[in-house]
Design brief:
By secondary structure, the chain is mainly alpha-helical. It folds into two domains: 43 residues; 237 residues, MetI-like fold, CATH 1.10.3720.10. Helices cover 71% and strands 1% of the residues. The chain has eleven helices and two strands. Strands 1-2 form a two-stranded antiparallel ribbon. The longest helix has 38 residues.
Amino acid sequence: MPRARRRAVFTVLFRAGTVLALLLVLSPAVWLLGGVVAKAVPHWQWNVLWTNLRGEDGGLLGPIVGTLVLMAGVLLIAGSVGVLAGIHLAELGRPGRHGGPGGTWLRMASDVLAGFPSIVLGYVGYVALVVGLHWEFSLLPALLVLSVMVVPYIAKATETALRQVPVSYREGAEALGMSMGHSMRKVVLKSAAPGIVTGLLIGLAIAGGETAPLLFTAGFSSTVWTGSLVHSQGFGYLTYLVYQFWSYPVKHANYLSYDAGLILVVMVLLLLVAARVIVARTQRHSEYRGR
């Protein structure tokens, strides 16, 4: 077979393989989304968005507010710590560039932390925070455990995004007399924004979809969050209803489980849209903005 023809065949096979891989990724996602929508839409009622949960009846106002508060808290705590940790690992934790070999140990510790099962972190949070510090089932223990769980993912995504910024950007900023902090804010972080936002999105999606650590730290309450961080005797969130109500021998409880799943899917989709808007605004002057 001639070399040109062999290359053409390999190119066709490679493209077919990439399409097949894309289908293998999309098929389960489409199947899951279709299943959630098919279960929830036929029995959907808009009043679940503003009605309180009453046992196995009512609406999902309390769990919706609780989930939003959890995600906002994780964004504040884990987002700040994870992005700063990623900046340190990428810019200060490399030998020969403003730092030493300590970044290797920090990176190893982050990888080890990412490997802990979420239920183990939840149990540690229960022993240390709920029982040890007498905070009881409440918001703050849940926030701290979820933040510890997702910080490694955000830090890794931030470090990877910063390492992909060309060195010439940093050198150009330094040649213009910019300080390291100023060039980081104005040049490097803007170029790495898509990867950082992706890491934050992954962290929020993980935090919003967790149940096991919340069972140990937040308990569950059907009431709307009162603003208390500790000693609140439970806290509502949507994943508990998805986990608990789908097998109840009560139709309305099953419907609430399906509705909770649909609301979680919509939240993630809204996060995706918000992330794309943020990236588009930060990259509007980039030559790669249309890619």
